[in-house]
Write a structure and sequence with these properties.
Two copies of one chain form a homodimer. Chain A is α/β, with parallel strands linked by helices. The first copy, chain A, is built from 15 helices and nine strands. In chain A, the strands form two sheets. Chain A has a seven-stranded parallel sheet.
C-alpha cells in the first residue's frame, strides 16, 4: 500500500487528509534553531548529515505525513556559478546578478546538476532514516522564479530589474528559462534516483508576472519540466504562487497536483480545475497565531472548502513563518488528522 | 459638457480613452524632486501651496486627463493622533502601533476630518488653478488598508501583526474598521465640498486578506463608504489591489468604477463585471522601462483587452515607480490619446 500522501496526490481514496507544511524544516522549531546556532544556513544546505537531520525533525516531532528535503531553491543558480553572499537582514544576495545577454551564454546549464551531490546524498540518508514511515518530497525552484532571483540579485518587493528584463530582453530571457529548465529537470531526476518519492516545483514569484507574461515566460517551461519527469512515475506538485488566474492551464500541464496559495478560495480552485489534479493547501499561515479554538475552526473551514472528495493534501497556503508557535503547529497536524476522517467515508461498492 | 474622465467613469461615450497615472505627482518628475529637496514629504503634504504645486505638475507637463491630489493615505491615522516617524530607508513608521483593544477606544474618529484643513485648502487651490482644464480626483485609503498600517506600524511584506489581529481580535478589528469608515466618509465629503470632482479609495493591502476575510473585513466597509457618498454625485473609484477574486462583488457596491491591478486580465475583469462599472487600468508600471516600440505595443494590448466599449479609463495597474523615465511617461500619454480613438468610433443613431 502506498503512503497516504502519494495516494492523495494521485486522487486515490485515503482514510484521512494527509498534511505536510511548507518550510516545515525551519526556524520555528527549537531543534532547528539549535543546529542553526552552530552552522550557517549554507553549511546546513550543503552538509548531507545536517540537511538530513533538520529534514527529519518535523517528521519526528509533529507527525506530518511527508518529509520535504531541507534545501534551498538557489542551489541551482549557485551550481551555475553564481556566487551568493549572505548579508545580515537582507537575505541571500548574488554578487553579480544577470543584467547582460552575454552572462547567460556563460552559464553551464548542462553541468549544474552534477555539482549538487551533497543534495542527493542528503536525499539518500533521509530516505534510509525514514525507513518507510512517510514519503520524501524533493523540490526545485521554477525557471521564472530562479531567473527572477538571478536577474534581480536578491529578494525584492518589486522585482523591477527582473520584470523590466521581460520587456527589454525577451529573447535572452527565454534562453535563460530554457537553460534553467534543462538544469531543473536533471536536478529533479537525480533527486528521484537518490530516493525522492514526490516532487514540488516552487514558482514563488509567479505573481510578479502579468497573466499574459505567465503564459509566455512560465507556463511553457513548467509544462516541459512535468513532461520530462513523466517516466519517473513520481507525483509532481506545482506551486505557482499568485497565479490563480492560470489554474485551469496549470491543471492541464500533466502535473498531479497544484499547491494553492492562501489568497485563493480552495472551493473555487477545485471547481475550475475540475478534478483533473489533486489540490494542496491552503490554510493561511497566520491562522497559527490564533487561539486553538479559532485554529480548529479554520482547519475545518479548509477541509470543508475541499469537501467530500479524494485528492486533497492539507498544507499552508505559503511557507510557515519563523515565529509560528510550535504547540499550535502540532495542534494543526492533530486537528487535520482528527477532523478530516469524516470527509473520507467511503461507500461500500455494491453490485 | 463633462470632462472625458468623468464621462468615462460614468460609462458615457468619449472620443478617446482618458488617462491618468497613479502616483503621477511623484518622484519620477524632476520638478517634483526639486521641491522635495527643499521640503520633507510631510511638509509637502500639509502645506497647501506645495501640495497644489506638485499636483499640477503632471497636468502641465504630461497632458494627463485628470489631476489627483498629492497627499498620503496616512493623513487619517495621523489625524487620529497616531504619530508618524520618518525613518530613512524604512518609510513612515508609527511610533505606537495599535496592538491592544483599548487603543482603539481612544481614537477620535468623529473629529479626524476636521483636522485635515490643509488638505481641503490644497484641493481649493488646485481646483482654482486648474481652471476647468481637467477634473481633480480626491482620495483616501480604505478602512482595511489604514487599519493594517496602524496595527503593523509600517509597510510590510507579511503584515503579520495586522493579519494576526484578524484572528485574535476580530471584534476590535471591526470597531476599528467602523471608526475608520466614519472618518473616511467625512474626509472624502470635505474633499468634495472643497472641489474634488471624483474620488478614489485605495485598498492597497486587499491582497493581504483571504477571500473570506476580504468579504468580512473590507467589502462591507467599502460598500458603506460608497453609499454614504452617493448623494454627492461624484464618481467613486475603488482600487482593491490583489482582490481580483472579489471583482463581481466590488462591481455591485454601487461604485462607478473599479481600478484593476496589472496582475489581472482586463478583458476577464470586463467580462465578470458585466458592464456594471467602468474599469480603470491596467498597464504594468514596468512597461515604462521598455523601448518606445514595445511600450506602444503594450498600450495597444491594454486598449484592445478593454475593446470597443464605453467606460475605460487608462491607468497603470499600480503606482508609477520613482525611477520611471519621464520621456516614456509622456509617450505613454500620447500613445493612449492617439491609439484609443479607433476604439471610440460611435455609430450614428438611426431611427
Amino acid at each position: 500500500m502506498q503512503p497516504a500522501l502519494i495516494q492523495a496526490l494521485r486522487r486515490q481514496p485515503t482514510g484521512f487528509t494527509p498534511i505536510w507544511i511548507m518550510r516545515q524544516a525551519g526556524r520555528y522549531l527549537p531543534s532547528y534553531r539549535k543546529i542553526r546556532e552552530q552552522y550557517s544556513f549554507h553549511e546546513m544546505v550543503y552538509t548531507p548529515e545536517l540537511a538530513a537531520e533538520v529534514t527529519l525533525q518535523p517528521v519526528n516531532q509533529l507527525g506530518v505525513d511527508a518529509a520535504i528535503l531541507f534545501s534551498d531553491i538557489l542551489v541551482i543558480p549557485e551550481a551555475l556559478g553564481m556566487r551568493l553572499e549572505f548579508v545580515e537582514g537582507r537575505g541571500p544576495v548574488f554578487a553579480r546578478p544577470i543584467r547582460r545577454p552575454e552572462q547567460v551564454d556563460d552559464l553551464p546549464f548542462a553541468e549544474a546538476a552534477d555539482l549538487l551531490q551533497p543534495v542527493y546524498e542528503a536525499v539518500s540518508i533521509i530516505r534510509s532514516e525514514l525507513g518507510g514511515r512517510v514519503p520524501l518530497i524533493g523540490f526545485a525552484g521554477a525557471p521564472w522564479t530562479l531567473a527572477a532571483y538571478m536577474i534581480e540579485g536578491q529578494g525584492s518587493k518589486e522585482f523591477r530589474h527582473a520584470r523590466a528584463f521581460l520587456y527589454t530582453s525577451p529573447v535572452t530571457m527565454h534562453r535563460l528559462l530554457q537553460g534553467l529548465t534543462e538544469a531543473i529537470v536533471a536536478y529533479l531526476r537525480r533527486q528521484v534516483e537518490a530516493g525522492a518519492q514526490a516532487l514540488q516545483i516552487f514558482d514563488s514569484w509567479a505573481g510578479y508576472l502579468t497573466p499574459e507574461q505567465f503564459r509566455a515566460f512560465s507556463l511553457p517551461y513548467l509544462r516541459r519540466i512535468v513532461a520530462a519527469l513523466q517516466d519517473l512515475d513520481v507525483p509532481v506538485i506545482l506551486f505557482a504562487r499568485g497565479a490563480a488566474h492560470a489554474l485551469v492551464e496549470l491543471s492541464r500541464t500533466g502535473a498531479d497536483a497544484l499547491s494553492i496559495d492562501w489568497q485563493t478560495d480552495l472551493q473555487w480552485a477545485k471547481e475550475v480545475t475540475g478534478g483533473r489534479v489533486a489540490l494542496q493547501g491552503n490554510l493561511d499561515p497566520i491562522a497559527l497565531y490564533a487561539s486553538r479554538d479559532v485554529l480548529q475552526r479554520e482547519v475545518e473551514q479548509v477541509l470543508k472548502s475541499y469537501g467530500f472528495a479524494t485528492g486533497h493534501v492539507f498544507n499552508l497556503g505559503h511557507g510557515i513563518l519563523p515565529d509560528a508557535p510550535v504547540d499550535h503547529v502540532k495542534a494543526l497536524v492533530d486537528f487535520v488528522h482528527e477532523q478530516s476522517a469524516k470527509y473520507h467515508i467511503t461507500e461500500p461498492v455494491t453490485a
